[in-house]
Write a structure and sequence with these properties.
24 strands
């Protein structure tokens, strides 16, 4: 059943517990306080609203759907439900969010959910989050530090790419995979601490990093060198069409587990390997025979 509810100056359209739309007099800057009983925030609820800066969600909300608040540059603050479990793809893409206080109930963040926001300072992610989807926090230029929870198992492709001010990252031992370009063009990234050894690195996770990066790894020097200089042949099948008829092409994609940069020099790595007590400095300036990719060379 569809109904209309008044909250302050806002008129809310609700159907079966889903908030479908908000309307308000033009240029209203009043905080949007969504009443209890709403369980899901639908797509595009702020279409046509250009001035709202704060949204308060009740604890009855368990889901924010795809594109609920995308492209709302005026939106600076959201008070999240303490029972929120899911944030859909592109939910806050290119909004003006300055900070995040996400509840521990949250388990899922969709692709590009916070892409291109204005999140500033340290980003702390909730303890029950298991996976970070592709591009979830990409192009947040002012994030300076990242706190990932123990229990997180995967970091998606380009999930933190172009976070220009990010300087340090600690990867929990629970993380088993780090996707392609996960930290690419985080040009000020200076330190990565791996707390575990059982993980797979995607291609080009260090793309566009400049200067020296310190890597602390709980295993041995030979192990981390093998990981960072791993084989990069990836065979894929692509479906294409030719005059309407499907064709399948199997090819080899060239990728780099280390990174590329347009200049002559790429970056240097100071690797601290805790298991054998070694510290070595490697340069990433040459190109190896496989995939024409950069390789680490001890200095």
């Amino acid at each position: 059943m569809r109904e209309r509810i008044t909250s302050g100056s806002y008129t809310l359209t609700v159907e079966n517990g889903v908030l479908l739309r908000c309307t308000v007099p033009e240029d209203c800057t009043e905080d949007l306080i969504i009443p209890e009983g709403i369980v899901s925030v639908g797509q595009g609820i702020l279409i046509g609203l250009s001035a709202v800066s704060t949204v308060v969600l009740p604890n009855s909300v368990v889901e924010i759907q795809e594109r609920s608040f995308d492209w709302k540059r005026s939106l600076k603050h959201v008070v999240f439900s303490k029972n929120l479990r899911k944030i859909g793809p592109n939910a806050f893409t290119q909004s003006g969010l300055l900070s995040l206080d996400l509840p521990d109930s949250l388990t899922e963040i969709g692709e590009s959910a916070f892409y291109g926001c204005s999140i500033t300072g340290e980003l702390r992610l909730p303890k029950n989050l298991h996976a970070i989807s592709d591009k979830a926090f990409a192009s947040n230029f002012l994030i300076t530090a990242l706190k990932l929870p123990q229990g997180l198992t995967s970091i998606g492709n380009s999930s933190f790419s172009h976070c220009f001010e990010l300087t340090s990252v600690t990867i929990p031992s629970s993380v088993k995979s780090i996707g392609m370009n996960a930290f690419s063009f985080c040009k000020n990234l200076k330190e990565i601490v791996f707390e575990g050894t059982d993980f797979v690195l995607g291609a080009e996770i260090f793309d566009g990093i400049q200067g020296e990066i310190s890597i602390t790894y709980p295993g041995t020097g030979s192990q981390i060198e093998a990981i960072l200089n791993a084989d990069c042949f990836v065979t894929e099948s692509e479906r294409d069409s030719y005059y309407g008829e499907p064709i399948y092409v199997t090819h080899t994609r060239h990728a780099s587990p280390i990174g590329r940069y347009s200049g002559v020099n790429y970056f240097t790595c100071k690797i601290h390997c805790l298991a054998d007590g070694t510290t070595k400095i490697y340069s990433c300036t040459g190109r190896g025979p496989v995939c024409s990719r950069p390789t680490l060379s001890p200095i």
